[in-house]
Amino acid sequence: MGIKTGFSLDSKRPTIDLGAYISQETRLSVFQRSNPERAEQLLREEEACICEKYALLERLMEQ
Fold first, then answer.
1. Are 23 and 29 in contact (CB under 8 A)?
2. pTM for the full predicted model
3. Is the dihedral of CA 33, 34, 36, 42 positive or negative?
4. Phi, psi of 17, rounded to the nearest 5 degrees
5. What's residue 49's pLDDT?
6. pLDDT at 8
7. C-alpha angle with apex 27: 22 to 32, nearest 5 degrees?
8. Which of 46, 54, 60, 63 measures 20 to 30 Å from 6, CA to CA?
9. Distance, CA of 51 to CA of 53 (rounded, Å)
10. CA separation (Å) from 41 to 1, 4, 7, 36, 46?
């Protein structure tokens, strides 16, 4: 028998593309233009982290 955490997820899964968001933010797009290879690598890593974190939150809600 699982212990209820009382956790409630009140936000939807992110719908905006992270790359699109970054290109709209000046402070982030400057880095993207100055170091595109590193920016792309970090973007992919962050997208994976976002997916993993949201999945964790969904699992916590189910407990």
1. yes
2. 0.72
3. negative
4. -70, 130
5. 95
6. 83
7. 55
8. 46
9. 6
10. 42, 38, 33, 9, 9
Which tokens go with 17? 């593309």
What proportions of the chain, in percent to the nearest 5, are helix, strand and coil?
70, 0, 30
The DSSP symbol for 25 reads: -
Residues contacting 28, CB < 8 A, separation 6+ = 22
Tell me the average pLDDT across 27-39. Answer: 93
Neighbours of 7 (CB within 10 A): 11
Provide the sign of the torsion angle of the four alpha carbons 26, 30, 33, 39, taken in this order. negative
State the amino acid at position 34 in one-letter form: S
Q: Angle formed by the axes of helices 36-62 and 26-34, to 10°?
A: 130
Average pLDDT, the chain: 87
